[in-house]
Amino acid sequence: MNFPSSILAFLVALMAIVLTISSLPSSYSAHRAPPISFQTRMIHRSSPESPLYNPNVTPANLSRTAAIAAKTRRTYIARHKAGQSADGGDWAHAHAYTSPMTPFGLYQGEYIIRYSIGSDPPTETYGVPDTGSDLIWLQCLPCHRCYTQNIKYFDPAKSSSYSLISCNDELCTTNPHEHCEPPDRYCHYNLTYADESMTSGNLATETITFGDETSPSHMAQLYDMVIGCGHYNIDNREGNKSAIGPPGVVGLSWSSSSLLGQLAFNRFSYCASANQDPNAGHSLLKIGIPGALITGKETQTPLYSAPSGSYLVNVTDLMVDEERLNIPPALFRMGPKGRPGTIIDTGTTFSEFVPGAFNALVEYINAVQALQLQFPIKDSDFDLCFADISFAPKVTIMFENLNFELSKENTWEQIEPRKYCLAILRGDRINIIGMSQQKNVNVGYDLKNKVVSFKDMACPLMK
């Protein structure tokens, strides 16, 4: 039988829709199709919009805290890094869960996002958006042990949409953090972080709402999302009971259990403003098509995925002014026998390079600054500081197919009135592109085409 071309086109389109819906995670296909796209507030922790806001803490305080925290965080990443199995293999069994959640004193994540959870009515809460984590979790009542947060804890008993996941459910058995032992009936999870902080509780499905009520068209109500409801949470603040912690984490990794994976979304972007005025407003995290902004090919570099879900990029060298440092490429590439890789991490403030690459960078900057009669001044937490950076050289990260020049603001951090410190730290066995190097940059992830774009722009702030 011959069908008119218009009917054939309709049947093909219908089949594509059916296949798309059937390929969604089981937590979604039983309900309704996810939204096309949405956006949510990306709030700096020092903003009055943030539940972590402390008017007595300056940006310089936060920077120093982040530098201290980086030492703890990178130790954990290195220990759990891909390729750190007994035989020195690749990332096959690694889950690089780092600690963006630790409160002030060790907590170094700069941003949180706002969302609502549950129903009758929903509870407003916040989480650290972390491209290195694959689970959405938050502190929940009853608290067998919880750290201090500035907003109320989520009480699942008051939400009609909250549903525990049983131990024999596929949503439990396929989750990398599940923990079920007899006589357990319901699925548990357990996560330990870099500084021995940890969260443990129930895996459940729940309704989550993202978006901004001032822009209803960009809101999204997400049903039957797998979350971790933490009833036992330790933040390891060394007795500092007055410190305030973020309510939880929103995992944005490439893993199927992250926010993106559960929705089968393959695009997201953010543009974090460098404006340090706490009253200036918030940035936006955009998820899906057409919301996420992926800029042109001239701004793109290939994106690779580790089995743990981390986002990997290929750095080929560093450049200072117009001079390549000729750093051995192996120092930047992931490979066997624990060879380092380079990840993009929204939960880390400062970028980090392994010693061989970092030392070459510092030595060259020192040589250039010495010509201007500028010599290093000591600092207990940063590796390289100067009193004057007026003539400091430009630093460029050379990615595969992309040379990305860092602005002066993304290269140096002002710690004191006359002390500017390099906003790149000495790493251990892995390289990290942190948020300080992503300020006033639109960063767009296209997971379908496996590219990430970096485009300098004046990132807008919303009120």
TrEMBL record:
MF terms (GO), sorted A to Z: aspartic-type endopeptidase activity
Pfam families reported in the protein's UniProt record: TAXi_C, TAXi_N
Signal peptide positions (record): 1-22
SUPFAM superfamilies according to UniProt: Acid proteases (SSF50630)
Gene Ontology biological-process entries: proteolysis
Keywords noted in UniProt: Aspartyl protease, Glycoprotein, Hydrolase, Protease, Signal
Ranges where the Peptidase A1 domain occurs: 111-455
Top-rank taxon: Eukaryota
An annotated GO cellular component: extracellular region
PANTHER family per the UniProt record, alphabetical: OS04G0448300 PROTEIN, OS07G0603500 PROTEIN-RELATED
Similarity remark: Belongs to the peptidase A1 family.
UniProt protein name: Peptidase A1 domain-containing protein
